[in-house]
Amino acid sequence: GFMRKNIFLDERITHMTDKDFSIDTKLIHAGEPNPRIKGAVSMPIFQSSNFEYEGETSYDSIRYIRLNNTPNHVALHQKLAAISGAEAALVTSSGMSAITTALLAFLKSGDHIMAHNTLYGGTADYVVHDLPEYGIEFDFFDAMNSEDWESKLKSNTKVIYIETITNPLMDVAKLDAVVQFAKKHNLVSMIDNTFASPLLFSPIKNGFDISLHSATKYLNGHSDIVAGAIMGSQAHISQVNSKLIHLGGSLDPNACFLLQRGMKTMSLRMERQCENAMEIAHFLENHPKITQVNYPGLKSSKSYENAKEFLCGFGAMISFELEGGVAVADAFIQRLEFAI
């Protein structure tokens, strides 16, 4: 019927090439049903776990939430791919689901991963404590200093993993050098692009194989869902999806709807947030009770030149240290009037 023609077939989803529209336009229009379903301006929520059989010939093509192919998933995947300059995209139940699923899709027992030595704590903990249980070796390397990279490389190294802007020190590495190193040694290059967002950096266009996001943060922007996103080539995303189907970290259609809605305002949100972050960073840097400010937009930051070279902005995340240690920091947090 009507919905099958307008939603289930990819050719009826609005496709946008890089030559057609800006990322601002893609955030709003890419992946939207075309023509609209019963004239609905917003993508409807298909809150159905399964769908009628339509003669599918493979398991992965059967419409089912866990297979990540409901109408809400398909539309969202198209939008994410379009804004990332990627062939394909995939959403997951959380940022950690995206990270762990992607890693397990390209690593097996006997393999080795090189990971930047400053990572989000959840990722670092997974690398250190969980990957070895699968028989996967790891080494941390300094992505800010390419001199020691070769020494960390092994014959069984398969993946190199970094973050665009690291959590929580806000480092920005020589991103082009990481891509070159990965290509030279035939490694799958993965980058967590959460703190930059597709607006400030486009990993796929710059040569990375896999771009990862906690969509909970900038992509959604409203603090009302937890979600993850993975972008890359069709071949890579198909490989990740096969692993995700078995691990089960799928995103609910209602959360898909909320994420698709939230992304439409991301450009405006990011512009204002980056402006605010710069003002706050300068204020903190000049405050006598602040001993360290980590923000790549400050000229005093060791990442300033790299951020200028590779990013379209400095982001909206700041970390800083107060004089007096943990006790003073706890007291400061308790006195914040607007903590969120």
TrEMBL record:
Keywords (A to Z) from UniProt: Pyridoxal phosphate
One BP annotation, GO: transsulfuration
InterPro entries: Cys/Met-Metab_PyrdxlP-dep_enz, Cys_met_metab_PP, PyrdxlP-dep_Trfase, PyrdxlP-dep_Trfase_major, PyrdxlP-dep_Trfase_small
Bilayer-spanning residue ranges: none
The keyword Kinase is assigned to this record: no
Coiled coil regions in record: none
Names of required cofactors: pyridoxal 5'-phosphate
GO MF: carbon-sulfur lyase activity; pyridoxal phosphate binding
GO cellular component: cytoplasm
PANTHER family registered for this protein in UniProt: CYSTATHIONINE GAMMA-LYASE, TRANS-SULFURATION ENZYME FAMILY MEMBER
The name this protein goes by in its record: Cystathionine beta-lyase
